[in-house]
Amino acid sequence: MNSRVRFGLIGCGAAGKIHARAILASDHTQLSWVCDTDARAARALGERWGIPWTVEPDRLFESAGIEAVSIATPHHTHFGIAVQAAQAGKHILLEKPFTLRTSEAVQLVRLCAEAGVAVMPWLERRYLPFVERAREIVAGGVLGKIVYTRTCTLGYKPRAYWEYGMRLEEYPSAWRGALALSGGGILLMNAVHQIDLMSYISGLTVTEVIGRTASLYHEVEVEDLALVLLRYATGALGVAEASCSTYGQGQFPIENPADAIMGVDGSLQLGIPLKWYDRIRFAQSCDYPKMSVTDMKIRLLDDFVRHLREGTPMRCRPEDAIAALGLIEAAYQSAASGKPVQLPAPSISGESGQTR
After folding, report:
1. For 127-155, how does the pLDDT look when each residue is reduced to its tens digit (9 = 90+)?
2. pTM for the full model?
3. For site-directed labelling of 54, which of 39, 120, 210, 329 has its Cα 20 to 30 A away?
4. Strand positions, DSSP E, the chain
5. CATH class of segment(s) 129-290
6. Was domain 5-125+294-342 assigned CATH 3.40.50.720?
């Protein structure tokens, strides 16, 4: 690859700190500025790594030395900041969810295409070492006709999470529990990764969603428990379980071996080790080394740089983030109405992810 891509980081909280570590660790990126509207957070991260810091995003957008920005701010700010970045001609890595609504996400992708900048979602689970092998198994027909999928995002978050974040940040940040600011709870904040990963591996398209949500332990406006039933275009069914109030089920981020794809000729258990069963060899498995969230993000960064420098396709496309957001949005609509929601595929005019 050519020279390093110079990044500005917007958002210095829990997610932003992981972004910073990944950008600094990659051989193909350089962290040039960090920004947060809370001067304490910006200063702490900047001084830790010896990087200029600011409370004004415009300083990043106006800097000719910054080629791309990574956005790790509260959910309700994603759209506005990303639009500013696109208008400034900066390529964008954007935390999930892209925006609070799919309509905004579609609009953002169109704006990026018009501005000639690339936008890529931080859906780093796609870079887990077993994922491409799992895709090969499904695409190769080993499972036969797929009839059922399951994702399990079950774990526990302390009540303090809603004010201080998962890593109990030094400075209070209570936006996560407010529906208008976060857009949702366990589904949007955590299960989105496994919902996206199931779509990527299975290749199936969801056409109908039934959602049920509750908040049974945490006293917040968003859900800490959800059950989502899926119907695919092929007629197959699926379920997505999610909770952050199930003590003893695991910590976040979670890689759950209960995630599975099942067909008439075999079944596939996702995780490390990857396990699958078929009618010919019966039980097979493939082991892989464990990978940290930072390592996944480094792989995503390197993929993004290849796209910018060489024009290679991005493994995490903006359309994928929109699809996952649309599914979760439908689950919330179903939970509110008590009725199934049909899921049309969102259309985006123009080619996304084009670079200058």
Report:
1. 999 999 999 999 999 999 999 999 999 98
2. 0.93
3. 120
4. 5-10, 29-35, 53-54, 68-71, 91-94, 119-121, 146-154, 206-214, 225-232, 237-243, 260-263, 266-269, 274-278, 282-286, 341-342
5. alpha beta
6. yes
